Amino acid sequence: MDVSEAALLASIPNRPAFYSPFVNPVNAKRRRNLVLNRMAEQEFISEEDAAIYSQMPIPTERAISSDTTAPYFEEWVRQILDDRFGSKLYTAGLRIFTTLDVGMQEAAEISMNEGWDRIEGRPGFRHSKFADFQESVAIGNPQADSMEYVQGLLIALDPWTGGVRAMIGGRDFQFSKFNRATQALRQAGSGFKPFVYTAAIASRIPQTFVIADAPVVALQVDGTEWRPSNFSETFEGPMTIRTGLQKSQNIIAIKLAQEVGLESVAQTARRMGIRSEIERFPSTAIGAAEVIPLEMAEAYSSFSNEGTKVRPFPILKVEDSQGRIIWDPKPERTQVLDPLVARIMVSMLQNVVEAGTGATAVRIVAGLPTEVAAAGKTGTTNDATDVWFNGFTPNLLATVWFGMDIPQEIRPSAT
Hints:
The chain has about 425 residues and is an alpha+beta fold. Among the domains are: about 1-60, Penicillin binding protein transpeptidase fold (Orthogonal Bundle), CATH 1.10.3810.10; about 185-310 and about 335-405, 3-Layer(aba) Sandwich (Beta-lactamase). It has helices at about 5-10, 25-40, 45-55, 70-85, 90, 100-120, 130-140, 180-185, 195-200, 240-245, 250-260, 260-270, 295-305, 340-355, 360-365; strands at about 95-100, 150-155, 165-170, 185, 210-215, 220, 225, 235-240, 290, 310, 315-320, 325, 335, 375-380, 385-390, 395-405. The strands form 6 sheets. It has a 5-stranded antiparallel beta sheet with strand order 3-2-16-15-14. A hairpin with a 4-residue loop joins β15 (about 385-390) and β16 (about 395-405). The longest helix has 20 residues, at about 100-120.
């Protein structure tokens, strides 16, 4: 790294978006030159050197550009390959073959953009709109860095192999390189409930088991009482656990978790692919635990594969400059559930899509034809901070999330 590059890096942290060389190169150069002049004043460098370094061009983005087909996916691939091959990745002329489906990626981009537009256009949305943020950055508004706008992610994978077909890790790679699909920890919300039901079915509790949807009081770690409610803030009386999942009733999930044991629920989620820490609290049953979205996609693959989970992966093979295969990663498949348990859960999750909380998301918003079999679960956290859908068809599994980077209500009653 030369002095010019060091000065540029020193100028960015104060206002990252405003002084980003990739977003605002004019501002970045002006700020860098100011730093160089200060260095000369403090006699760290000579005035002649400061003048020379001030004439050097601002570097352009080299590795991954937001103009590429799938920048978040490509950066994920680059990180994996960098860990494996080091500098050889950049110097040896390697050929990388990935699982990405370009057509599916483009469709995912369109779908997510439509989703963001819907959220920003609905009554009650009080945050900055992304277009306003872009305009503020373009005109050099010093408040741009503090503007908060709704983010999102999408992961689509082959449910049989785990090959990732599409990935969106955020609103725009140019403004935020943080990949929410592979790095963010977010509360799972109601999307966690299927792990409760899976633990119950695996322990021989039938889907016809009846639980009273009625007020419940649970003691928290600090000794205070927790009085949870359903999303509707009403109670519907006795119902089967199948109906409880279909309607996503919080009370049913909490009582069922108490019946089967929170340790069993946590261990079931762990086996299915949730590696993030899972606290053994009553609120865990309704999704208080924070998870990485890619883990959710992996865990739901256990349902679609008759109990076999698949590890999501992006790379098919790597060839050297002579066309010889030097890395050929194989799909990782692990049997984690009894096939019968998985089939029962698929049936219950199909019920969610056909007649429950997932019907609007899948059949109306996504427009999936009724003749295409689908199963899945919506997921909304308290105060509409995180909004999820995890679901699958026979040929595709997807995890979708919308929310703010700093957890807060997206808009009242968002689902």
